[in-house]
Amino acid sequence: MPMEMPCPARSQFVAPTPLPSFVDVLPNASEGIEQGTAAEDVCTTPVEPYQNVPPILISVVEADVEGSGSGDQTCVEEGIYGEGGILGDIEEHRIFRSKNELMTCLSITAMTEKFQYKVFKSKPSFVVVRCVHTSCSWRVRAKKLVENEYWMVTKYEKKHTCPTDFKPVRRRQATSWVVGECVKRKLINPGRRKFGVDISYSVAWRGRECAYDNLRLGTPEQSYKLLPGYLHMLMATNPGSVVNLEVSDGNKFQYLFIAFAASIHGFSYCRPVINIDATHLKGKYRGVLFTAVCHDANQQIFPLAFGVGDSENDASWSWFLGRVKSVFGVNPTLVIVSDRHRSINNAVQEVFPQAFHGICMYRLLNNLKTKFRNKTKELEQHYIRTAKTYNLQDFHVLFYTLCSAVPGVKEYLEAVGLDRWTRSHAPSRRYNIMTTNISESLNVVLVKVRELPITAFVNEIRLLCQKWFHERRTKAAGCTTMMSKDIETKLEERKDRAQAMGVICADQYTFDVVDGERNYCVDMALWTCTCQKFQLDQLPCDHVLAVVRKTPYQAYDLCSLYYTREFWHETYRGVISPIPHISSWTIPQQISEFKLQPPDVRTVAGRRRKRRLPSIGEELPTPKCSRCKERGHNWATCQNPIALHPADEAECPGSNLPTRQPTHPSDQQSMQQL
Fold it and tell me: CB of 498 within 8 A of CB of 545?
């Protein structure tokens, strides 16, 4: 029988309103969840602070929907000082196989003894290092042996004379390369090295996954069981947040939706243009991450909502967008920007019939490159300018040039809809948002996080948003200009260009601006310019700023409130609070007894794919060889000849690479024999 657990009232999902207050930090709360704690350790005893938390929505639907470590010293001993590695400590007259081995041993010594050093002198034949404190006498001098590549320590002052309270904050010797040297020998057949047995690659890989499970809140199956309790605590520590968890028959996970209260509050101060996108998860049970983001006043990513589903299909997109609509409401000027996925188009028409649905111009360009493969250069040259232009007259000229250069593209673009990919034909204001780049950027930020089990994955998203909100709230609070920093920079650039323009006054409000060989009419009463940039971006264009330079008008008074410092700070006024340690969770019995099961997925043989497949028309960057500087291969597979003496380079007949001409008699004799 379908079961529905208590859910919040629908009234809390409607229009966004400023929240009265936010919880900063809970008493005795730590940053996130301590790693390695099992789901059974959750405390289910009710405690006063969380008695009135609204329960999360857990609904059951039908199934026929579409579509132990031994410390750092052990690591050092086994990783660096093990067999075949660096033996012993730093001491005078000690021999090292190479300079890298010497510097690695110095770094390990510095990390072990809790001090830092700096390289005082470094030459091909010797090196001198000292303690970072200027009055300390600790130093090491080593030189390269003449007869081979070995290095020997010639002087070693072991005693430190720096003050005991001198503790540099940054550990400059703890580089990724040194840490890699510490742990790499643990990954080289550890069974044979430690226990004298050989293990296969698959056993080693599964052993690594078991170790990761201890750091990722348990196994993927345990992570699903932990998820309802985590979501309850998320709502307890972040009141006003909206969390929906939907399951199918057998309490199997199907959908998840999360919108933080801070995001709900901040959206009211952002331009009403939402970017939506989806990307695949890389964990054991796979799935798809749905994201809804927008731009803040400083042109940065502002996260609105996150969702997890089975795949990109009509049902999942309609479910996600339905939750977005119920939480953030419907704005008559709302614009949704996405790629051309058919399920997105169907869901937007169903859930947001009044909103304008634009598409990413770069995604469409990739489709054009695939269809018109022989005209890629012409497409890139004319299409971007056509899509970005503000003025209809300029659009007709550029569109005619594009269609003339690429036969057949006119019918294709008109079938897509000129209003969906051009700025000049859009019925609603898109501002300067013509792509889904912010959605793609968020996917790149989460590329490693998407490999985690579900609860650890959601926790990492919360930590990321918590970090962003704090950093940007601090940055906005320290802003001393009227507009955000990015907008101030843009206005300054436009003011510089406006100085070269002439202004002719017609009356109190109308002006004629001469920009090179073209004239533009500016009406300050209607806030219009014939270039259309002023109206569409809600930001003074070059011609308006030229008028401002000659009149008492103020440029800041002509900017939209969406770009102001006040809106920027208000966007991040909300706080995304941390979640306490799992042992201090207080969860209602109804949720603690609910055992969420992972979804049904078909396991594919072999290692799970981590790199995404390129989109249609997407060009992946080709590798560049660091040896010959050519593209298409790397230094490991390079077979091109390299000049031994660049000073004597000359072009060899039949080759584009420089070669050395024989100048010595022995060289000439050898060339004649060849």
Answer: yes
